[in-house]
Specification:
The protein has about 100 residues and is mainly α. About 55% of the residues lie in helices and about 0% in strands. The chain has a domain of about 60 residues.
Length: about 100
């Protein structure tokens, strides 16, 4: 390799940064202690603390699937709906 690397930037982020395709963007890459790169919502932490079967399934998920679960529930403001979505997701992974 010649040392050139590419990072894909979503169109929505380009718009937010007021940049266009082909513009130069400077960034910094750093190591974070959280391998998921996103905070685990409290409702998920509580559910996993209380449900051994759920935590077993969760621990077997890839980091990508854990992030998908987190992003699928953070949009909800209703705890009951969040719990329902978490359980549905985990059951779908166990089938």
């Amino acid at each position: 390799m010649n040392g050139d690397y590419f990072i894909i930037v979503a169109k929505a982020l380009l718009q937010k940064l007021n940049k266009q395709l082909g513009d130069e963007i400077k960034f910094e890459i750093f190591l974070v202690s959280n391998p998921l790169g996103v905070k685990v919502p409290e409702v998920l932490e509580v559910l996993l603390d209380q449900d051994q079967a759920a935590i077993k399934i969760y621990e077997e998920l890839t980091d990508g699937k854990k992030r998908r679960l987190i992003f699928s529930i953070i949009k909800f403001k209703n705890v009951d709906l969040e719990v329902k979505k978490i359980i549905e997701f985990l059951h779908s992974q166990n089938d």
